[in-house]
Amino acid sequence: MRAPSGASTGASTGAPVGAPTAATGSLIGLALGDALGFPTEFDDVPAILAKCGPWREMDLPEPAFVTDDTQMTLALGRGLRTALDGGGPPTAETLAPPVRQEYVAWWRSPDNNRAPGGTCLRACALLADAHRTWAEASQIGSKGCGANMRVAPLGLVPGLTPGQRAGAAQLQSALTHGHPTALAASDLTAYAVRALAAGARPAELPGLLRAYAHAQRTTYREDWLGDLWRRSQDPTPTRFIARGWDDCLRVLDRLDAALAAPDREADPCLATGAGWIAEEALATGLLCFLLFPDEPVTALRRAACTSGDSDSIACLTGAFAGARLGAGAWPREWAARIEYRTELLSLGAAWDA
219 lies in a domain? Predict the structure, then answer.
């Protein structure tokens, strides 16, 4: 597919950092990446090129439908908004019930027909049973990317302390994906979105993420996760959570290697993984963003033209790029016709304000 004549390719090198519309930009970017990658998921790169033409010219599909990635991001955003409406700081007790309710509503929705992940479907079916605790529903063996593809709202909502953001990011993951790597990757993804929205430079981001992962490696957030760790085979909560952070640190090594010798024409999945699992979705989404930090639409196109979980990779790439560059990063014609546009703009405007 070819871009419409005169379509913007995104922000220039001089675009503002720490943009005042970071939340709107991130949510719209996430949805645009999701829609761009929806038709290319499950295809290899030659098949994508045969279907769409040169990857640097890929256009947003018409209509611009999104997948469960955006739907679940909005579910988390609604649950988070409800939890914060009381005015107090978020806790496990105030956040888990509304987010659980929103995840179950997504599971029951007739619009949940966009190739949703099996882990989310299994967990939400169990969450729908009011007699079960959320921990009993959590899929402790799954580190699929469904946990961190939706976590961007926790990097965008203002007023959270670092501990609240980290705990909430891990809890929203644990409702469906209880594997320690899913928890750590969700925390790290929210941290990356927050850092970019606050003005972090792209070049410094990998180092910031590595330092954060090392600092958090042995922190089990019992006030948010309770005794979830006991459902694993690990002897202690510290050993449980460290496994997740170690997976993330290993994939950051692969990200560093890819950035040391960048190949913008190669399939990013070859460097940092296909993205079906949480830490690889994070790293490959970051790689696509960092290869084109000042060309957000090119970054989305690169992410959508990948051999792995293209919609999830591209939605994370869009969340990172939009958090850094704001709403002005995206072509107006694209943003005007993205599915769920009104709700995305409403959440973004509230958090930008």
Answer: yes
